[in-house]
Amino acid sequence: xxxxxxxxxxxxxxxxxxxxxxxxxxxxxxxxxxxxxxxxxxxxxxxxxxxxxxxxxxxxxxxxxxxxxxxxxxxxxxxxxxxxxxxxxxxxxxxxxxxxxxxxxxxxxxxxxxxxxxxxxxxxxxxxxxxxxxxxxxxxxxxxxxxxxxxxxxxxxxxxxxxxxxxxxxxxxxxxxxxxxxxxxxxxxxxxxxxxxxxxxxxxxxxxxxxxxxxxxxxxxxxxxxxxxxxxxxxxxxxxxxxxxxxxxxxxxxxxxxxxxxxxxxxxxxxxxxxxxxxxxxxxxxxxxxxxxxxxxxxxxxxxxxxxxxxxxxxxxxxxxxxxxxxxxxxxxxxxxxxxxxxxxxxxxxxxxxxxxxxxxxxxxxxxxxxxxxxxxxxxxxxxxxxxxxxx
Length: 392
Fold this sequence. Notes:
The chain has 4 helices and 26 strands.
């Protein structure tokens, strides 16, 4: 990837220019006993990307472009010859000032949606919800992805070769909430694995509650006709009738199809003895994939968002570890699927991303998931569940 231009798949194929800040305290070539890790800190220029803060981390095995301006999300990754992300119709990365999160219809969040990893939360993370008088109460997927990080910093362990990019994102409203997300994106020199460790703290003196969902979005080339989603699970159910119509092929991906309506599947994953679960999307023909591991102690649910629409309309699969199912917040609260935080309390959420660029790596992770699945009954529901889907 050229150090001056980030080429991206967009409808007009135009480039995004980056003004790198070589004097930033974040930038540097960090030498460790395991090899160097290079970090560049800069700003995007042009269109709705103008002023978006970016950090490029290069471990020698993977290059990751993070977006501190957008809640510490990850725009794309490059591992070997494989680009990991998706071609959203949105002209991004979009500066939060251009995203009308609080649009009256509650769907303004979609105007900035084009990253590989997007956090949804923290007050709410699901469908938009309105008050009885019709005004918006909670917007789609919450606000955290459109809030900028502050106090950006790097920590280096030279002996282990581990480097962390750390940023704080505060979601606050006088009299109502103050939730601090301290996000750590961790990398080992010469490793393609990406570690995400998020701490959410209630900084008020009264109890609070929260929700968090990791919207991990994968398109071409990992997503293709014949690609499969593997996950060990105890139970799965479709969100709605349209999703139910495809339940027998819920984890099988087809070719891009114009007019394809999104299918959504709610999953209770099966965890290992250390309380970690794993999902993998893989392109069997090409031997490439992305594995997503997550700590089920704080992320006990998983959502598969199957949107195999035309390439121009956003051909993508979402792998989504979550604290809950993405219904209206009030429904999730009634079902006991919100996270309670005492005054000053912190909860920790852990995700690990594994780019896979060889058949052997894909096969090994699939065997691991299959082994984990052996002791599960794997209940597959052919209709939505009343306590999982709102409005039935």
